[in-house]
Amino acid sequence: DHATTIRVLVKHGADVNERAGRNHTPPLCIACAYGSDRAVVELIRSGADVNGCDKKGMTPLMSACHLRGLPTTVSLLLDSGAKVELTNERGETAVDIVMEATPDEEGKYNQVEQALSMHRLAQEKVKN
């Protein structure tokens, strides 16, 4: 179980924001890409930066939108303060990424798109 492993590593001093690999990918981006919601929750609970990006500017929210269109993961990130308006090196936001995704049979991308749109509307109401 990844969440248990994360808990043990953090207990022994692991940095939940330590980037890895050639793209310097944060652990939260990796957990989001694989749709491991329990790992996502544990990383956030342990202090992971929900807006931390890799060297290409991909955030955890973008990873969740791009690779699998994961509605639960997207909701967890939004509820934890993920910023929808951030852009990657190509100038894309999470909304742009999910809009480019191939439609899926289960309608996950539609659910993600709706969650992002609702979050954006809520943020605009707060500003006004």
TrEMBL record:
SUPFAM superfamilies: Ankyrin repeat. ANK repeats lie at residues 23-55, 56-89. It holds the Pfam family Ank_2. InterPro entries: Ankyrin_rpt, Ankyrin_rpt-contain_sf. Keywords: ANK repeat, Repeat. SMART domains: ANK. PROSITE patterns: ANK_REP_REGION (PS50297), ANK_REPEAT (PS50088). Signal peptide: none annotated. The keyword Repeat applies. PANTHER family: ANKYRIN REPEAT DOMAIN-CONTAINING PROTEIN 29-LIKE (PTHR24171:SF10), ANKYRIN REPEAT DOMAIN-CONTAINING PROTEIN 39-RELATED (PTHR24171). This is Uncharacterized protein. It comes from Palpitomonas bilix. The lineage of its organism: Eukaryota, Eukaryota incertae sedis.
